[in-house]
Write a structure and sequence with these properties.
7-stranded mixed sheet; 40% helix; 396 residues; 14 helices; Aspartate Aminotransferase, domain 2; Aspartate Aminotransferase, domain 1; alpha/beta; binds pyridoxal-5'-phosphate; 2 domains; 5-stranded mixed sheet; single chain
Length: 396
């Protein structure tokens, strides 16, 4: 009834992986069980021999029907053969990254990658004699120059989540494939609706499904996406051993959230575009970092790789004093102060950024535009700037 090719993403989200209905239940029930039993010993032994990415399920650390529904949807959205969901995004990234590393290996990674990933590579993996070279990521030549004979992995995050810098995925993956180097990308910003890294040659795609995919700020979840063989190997090794699995109840909430992704994401994108364009002309703003702006320095790459943009962007205030940055964030009423993003609620977080090409660290204020009305969000930002101005006027 539902072929998994040529289907609109919204239809995949609504229906794929849900047939046949269990007793006609329109929402799949939660399989809240650790194991599955079999009528015969032969059937049990057969199940143990199967690839544990789908039925027959035998143990929930490896696979579970509630998780399988989501895995089929995410794999189809990414145009990939298989997906494994995990307990959070870092669980997915740690499993995928460590899969491609061994003692003495070398990794190339953008210096703007998600902080815990940099700590995994720099601090934790150093125990296993793994070394890492950080690059700006915006120059493919720099990435190629950083690769060594022992490089087994190029890690990618495009765009990054503070300065929104991109890597040229087709160019990098062409080089990596020709040189036997694996590639892993964190595709959390874009979701499969805006960017499909597999079609651009990336081996394994990771997601924090905590963000847009679940969309309601009520669970943590992650996903690893790739070929059947890679996802099977990662499941049997890292996921099976580290046990970083998603629990059925969280999976069921993820299923509820992900159904509306194709309706929510364009709204986040439209609101953020509107706010970012408006901020570009604001007298208190030095620079806006948003991938869909005409002024975005890597506009060619954006137009080549992306189908659109999301609700997350940042800006540099002209007044770079810590006091004013914090006062601005404190004055916001609808934007709440918090990390994460992708839910219904607008969020703000100040980030002191210092990539290698900055002479000194700069404050960027990262905004996530939730599902509130855009005029209310702009009014909130306006009154916060007014408040900062009034405060600095009393200071002089
Ligand atoms: C949140 C996030 C992660 C980590 O995901 P968790 O679900 O919190 O473990 C990884 N990468 C990016 C870009 C993120 O925003």
């Amino acid at each position: 009834m539902f072929p998994d090719h040529d289907m609109d993403v919204a239809t995949i989200l609504a229906h794929l992986g849900e047939q046949p209905k269990n007793q006609g239940a329109v929402v799949p029930p939660i399989f809240q069980n650790s194991l599955f039993t079999f009528e015969t010993t032969e059937a049990l032994l057969h199940a143990l021999e199967q690839k544990p990415l789908g039925p027959p399920h035998h143990y929930s650390r490896l696979s579970n029907p509630t998780l399988s529904v989501i895995e089929q949807k995410i794999a189809a959205l990414e145009g990939a053969e298989a997906c494994k969901v995990t307990g959070c995004g870092m669980a997915a990234i740690t499993a995928a990254v460590t899969h491609f590393l061994k003692a003495g290996a070398h990794v190339v990674c953008p210096d703007t990658a998600y902080g815990p990933v940099r700590r995994l590579l720099s601090d934790y993996m150093a125990r296993f004699n793994v070394s890492v070279t950080y690059v700006s990521g915006t120059s493919t030549d720099e990435i190629v120059a950083a690769c060594r004979p022992e490089t087994t992995l190029i890690y990618l995050e495009s765009p990054s989540s503070a300065l929104f810098r991109m890597q040229d995925l087709p160019a990098i993956t062409a080089y990596a494939r020709a040189n036997g180097i694996n590639t892993v990308i964190d595709n959390t910003y874009a979701t499969p609706l805006l960017l499909n890294p597999i079609s651009l040659g990336v081996d394994v795609v990771c997601h924090s499904a905590t963000k847009y995919m679940s969309g309601h700020s009520d669970i943590t979840a992650g996903a690893i996406v790739g070929s059947q063989k890679m996802i099977y190997d990662i499941t049997m090794a890292e996921v099976n051993m580290m046990g970083n699995i998603l629990h059925p109840f969280s999976a069921w909430l993820l299923l509820r959230g992900i159904r509306t992704l194709a309706a929510r994401l364009p709204l986040h994108g439209k609101t953020a575009d509107d706010v970012a364009n408006w901020l570009e002309g604001h007298p208190s703003v030095a620079q806006v970092h948003h991938i869909s702006l005409d002024s975005y320095p890597q506009r060619d790459l954006y137009q080549k790789m992306f189908k659109g943009s999301g609700g997350l962007f940042s800006f540099e205030p002209k007044d770079q004093s810590r006091e004013s940055v914090l006062a601005f964030c404190d004055a916001l009423k609808i934007f709440q102060r918090g990390i994460s993003w992708g839910g219904f609620e607008s969020l703000v977080v100040p980030l002191l950024t210092s990539p290698a090409d900055y002479e000194k660290p700069r404050w960027v204020i990262r905004l996530f535009c939730g599902l509130e009305g855009v005029n209310d969000l702009k009014a909130d930002i306006s009154q916060a700037f007014d408040r900062v101005e009034a405060l600095s006027a009393t200071r002089v």
